[in-house]
Amino acid sequence: xxxxxxATNNNSIPDRNERMIKARNVTIIGLIVNVLLAGFxxxxxxxxxxxALLADGLDSALDIATVIFGFVAIRIANRPADKDHHFGHAKxxxxxxxxxxxxxxxxxxxxxxxxxxxxxxxxIPEYDKFNLIIASASIVLKAILVWINVRVGKKIDxxxxxxxxxxxxxxxxxxIVVLVSVSIGHRSIGxxxxxxxxxxxxxxxxxxxxxxxxxxxxxxxxxxxDQSPDEExxxxxxxxxxxxxxxxxxxNIRARRVGANTFLVDLDIFLDPTLTIDEGHxxxxxxxxxxxxxxxxxxxxxxxxxxxxxxxxxxxxxxRQ
Length: 321
Known about the structure:
elongated, mainly alpha, 321 residues
C-alpha cells in the first residue's frame, strides 16, 4: 500500500480518548507477553546455563521498560495544544521513537560483539529442549505483538507503537538465533563443526537490526525536521481545492508532517476580487472542511488572494520560469 493510499484510508484524525484506549490496550498486551517471556527465559537460562537464552530474556525485560515508557510518550503526545505548544505535543512520540532506534543500534552492537567472540573462541552452544520450546514460543508471541502494534499504530497514527512493533520484529530475529543455536550449533558434519552457524547468523541479524533502526531514525527525523509529504498528497490537496466552486487558482501549497500520516497545510487560494470578505471566507471554510474530510490534515491555514493580484502574477511568472 502506497503512502497516499495509507493517508487517504486513514483520513480522519483519531479521537484523543479513543486513541488512548487503544494505546492502553496494546500496552497491556505487550506488558503481559514480555513479562511472561522474560520470566520464563531468565528462569530456564539459570537452570540450563544458556547464555543465549539469558541474553534473550534480558532483551524481553528491556522491552517491558520500552512498552511502559512508550505509553507515557503517547500520553504526553496526546495532550491538546497549550500556550507553550500551539500545535500540540504530537512530535514527542517521534522523539521517543528515536530513543527506540538508538536502543536497537546498541543491541545490534552487543549481538555483534558476542557473535565475533564466539567465532574467535569456537564456542559450541549446548543443546537443551527447553531452550528450543521457549525460543519457538517467543517467535510466535512476538509475531502477534508485531502485528498488533504496527496495525494499531498506523490506525491511531502513533509512531511509538509502530517503532515498538519494529523493535519486537528484531526480537523475533534474536529468538531465531537462539533456535538455530540450540538446534544445530552443537552438531558436526563429520569432523566439521557447525559452531560457526549461530554467530554468523547473529552477525547478519545485527545488520538487519541496524537497518531497521536507520528506518526508524529516518521516519522520526523527517517529522522533527518538518519534512513535506509525498508529491502525490500535495497533488491531492491541489485537486480537491480546485474542485470547489469559486476557486480561480491556488498556489504556495506547503505541508509538513506532524505524525506518521497527519499533516499541517498552508496554501493560497485565488478568488474573484469582486467577492465580499464574507463570501471569500465562506469559500475558504468550505475548502478547509473538504480537505480535512478527505485527507488526514490536523491544521490548515488558507490565505485568500484576489485573482490576478501581484502575488498571483508573481506565482504565474515563477511557474513559467
